Amino acid sequence: KKIMQVNEIKLQLPPSPPQLPIIRNLHQLGALPHQSFMKLSQKYGPVMLLKFGRIPFVIISSAEAAREVLKIHDLNTCNRVQLTGTRKLTYNCLDLAFAPYDDYWRQMRKICVLELFSLKRVQSFRFIREGEVASLMDTISQSASSATPVDLSEKMFALTASIVFRMAFGQIFQGSDLDNHKFEKLIRATEYFMGGFTTEECIPYVGWIIDRLNGYHAKLEKVFHELDTFFEKAINDHLKPERKIQGQEDIIDVMLKIEKDQIKPGEAQITKDNIKAVLLDIFLGGVDTSAITVVWAMSELARNPRLMKKAQEEIRNCIGKKGRVTEDDIDQLPYLKMIIKETLRLHPPSPLLLRETTSHFKVNGYDINPKNLIQVNVWAIGRDPKYWKNPEEFYPERFTNNSIDFKGNNFEYLPFGSGRRICPGIHIGLITSEIALANLLYCFDWKLPNGIKKEDINMEEASGGSLALSKKTALNLVPVNYLQ
Ligand code: HEM
């Protein structure tokens, strides 16, 4: 016991803000943890140790420390934390995003990178994206004819949900068991359970009583059952002998083929549960992130008419009177791409990268223990004046002649994460946001609703409810048809 104490004394742990009994730093979490952590880091430094109840969290708030954690010590930090909610909803972590870093994760990652999210596969879904964007533009055009404001937050969610739904299931909402609203409700409920700890996980001995009283486990079971029933039916529909693949394979087709073609020595048997867990990742990773990016971009542009005009001129000069922007055109729209980049700097959909340490290592001279949770504050690093001039200003031009990219090697800019667990959906996420934003800017001019000034656009972030960082209030703008 004495030796252990000596060892503990020798460890130099990162600085911590003062703690209360039992809940420790929980009261400092706030409604928007990335913002609270940024303020705390200004006082306690870029590597801090906080405890939420019994759970130790190391908060990383500088590019240098992020590089140490995500590059030098990537192997020690590429686990994800497994919570009651995530374990249940991912069929005991059979997905990719929450699977522990092991052979199974490697197998799933290979499937995702080579089969599901490869450039070739992403291109094969191009007709879905272009088709859904076109029908959205038609709907918005009707609002333009009657000069009615459009709720872009709702429209963007509906767009990306329809795209992901068709990619995954080869089916449109209409005629399926879920309509758009039911789907959104299910996604929100799932996110609630994926995103948080149970009280028992944070607070020992008494936490379980609170979970019992607020019906946590019963509600979790209900959401799981709803998701499972839906996935089960979708997979069974794909197994019907009369089903013929029309045109392009969808994600379930690809996964079922992998299920049939296996098994390579040493690899896990792919079952229906694996397929369901991967489908869940695609919903949670693919819908909100791209939608939110477009909404933030449009909000920033509505507040900056000069930038909006510049973007529209670039697109309209390139497209002329063609009627729609297609995915072939995107590479000729560098300013549009810079707008997306700048949006992801100021409004990263995942403001905190969440990892779990597997073994001891040091960052900035501080000891980090195994089984600690790491949160890299991508949001704070993206607004740090040390790396960004006038960081609060939305200024896409800052990316002109700038080699910063999304691949996770620029540690001052990590919207898709970094290292072994970097987002495998980068191509889908980017092209979906780009094609949607390009068409919104090409097809319409955008005015503020009567009585609203550009300074009135609410840029506050929403707290809770969604895994991705969305805008607190919906963005309503009035479209004016450009092409008549
Ligand atoms: C703008 C769009 C998107 C953003 C900003 C984004 C961001 C992220 C981030 C920050 C991570 C964690 C990376 C890390 O820990 O280093 C992640 C992981 C992941 N993302 Fe995305 N994502 C986007 C779109 C997508 C799409 C479209 C999909 C799938 C269709 C997807 C699927 C995933 C999966 C499966 C993981 C877990 C990877 C693993 O743990 O190995 N994401 N994403």
TrEMBL record:
GO terms for molecular function: heme binding; iron ion binding; monooxygenase activity; oxidoreductase activity, acting on paired donors, with incorporation or reduction of molecular oxygen. Belongs to the cytochrome P450 family. The lineage of its organism: Eukaryota, Viridiplantae, Streptophyta, Embryophyta, Tracheophyta. Its cofactor is heme. It comes from Acer yangbiense. The keyword Hydrolase does not apply. This is Cytochrome P450. Pfam families: p450. Heme binds at residue 423. Keywords: Heme, Iron, Metal-binding, Monooxygenase, Oxidoreductase, Signal. The keyword Oxidoreductase applies. PANTHER family: CYTOCHROME P450 71A9-LIKE ISOFORM X1, CYTOCHROME P450 FAMILY 71 PROTEIN.
